[in-house]
Amino acid sequence: MGVMKRLTAIVQAKANKALDRAEDPRDTLDLSYEKQLEQLQQVRRGVADVATARKRLELQAQQLQSAAAKLQDQARQAISQNREDLAREALTRRAGIATQLDQLKAQHDQLVQQEERLVATTQQLEARVAAFRTQKETLKASYTAAQAQTKIGEAVSGISESMSDTGLAMQRAQDKIDQMQARAGAVDELLASGALTDLSGSSDPLQAELDRTSRQGQVDLELEQLKGQLAPPQSGAALSAGQKPGTGSESTGVNAEAAPDEMGTEPEPTPMPANAEEDEDEEQPAGSGDLFSLDDGAQP
After folding, report:
1. I need a labelling partner for 25 at 20 to 30 A (CA). Which of 31, 55, 88, 125 fits?
2. CA-based R_g, the chain, Å
3. Which region, left, alpha or beta, applies to residue 252 given φ > 0 means left and ψ of -120 to 50 means alpha?
4. Domain membership of residue 232 as a residue range
5. CA 171 to CA 176: how far, in whole Å?
6. Could you tell me if 153 and 223 lie in one domain?
């Protein structure tokens, strides 16, 4: 029995807490107002029923009075015709109607008093309902204002459920951003150290080294060509006289090994060495042909 009582008490406590959380005072006030309106309507229907009964008694009394008046006339008519027996009968019936009228009057007086009490009760109830309605609306407005103020305070302080969810979502997003940034930095460090292979580039390390060397040689070649273009003015005077300068800058940007004329060999059609031509065909981009065309124009 003790266990059952404890279980009953626990269930009741849980149910009360659930009801407290689910209960809205505004709904409770509206429900109370509706019940009072129903009671007021019932009282009004009672007043209408009593008034109807009173009216029926009044109509019945009018009918009895008409019948009594008719019997009175019949008694007079019987007396005028020397029919005393008929006159007595008419007066006897009229006396019975008078008794009924007395009874109806007593009932009518009771109904009138009951109707008056119901009317007074209805007026009092109407005043109470009107006052309760005003108080209800005031309490509802106060509760709504307090609820709004509470929600605003919770939102400002960040303890509301929605704001807590928003804060947790922002924290999770920041954690993911930090994790992705850390991963990206780690991958960059591994690629720079060579621990990871860049799959977007060439998979052959030998070919990659050859390409790097070829690019470096092309850069050196273009650098020498730029130096030849920016040579002193006297080199231009020697070229105009049809003489080749003895320095290594007469080929305008070509390496020192690319001067076969001074060694007694037959000059090539172009001042560029064979390996430079191969590099040009294999590695030189399309926009570098303008530099070599300037070298061809510098030959006598």
Report:
1. 125
2. 61
3. left
4. 207-298
5. 9
6. no
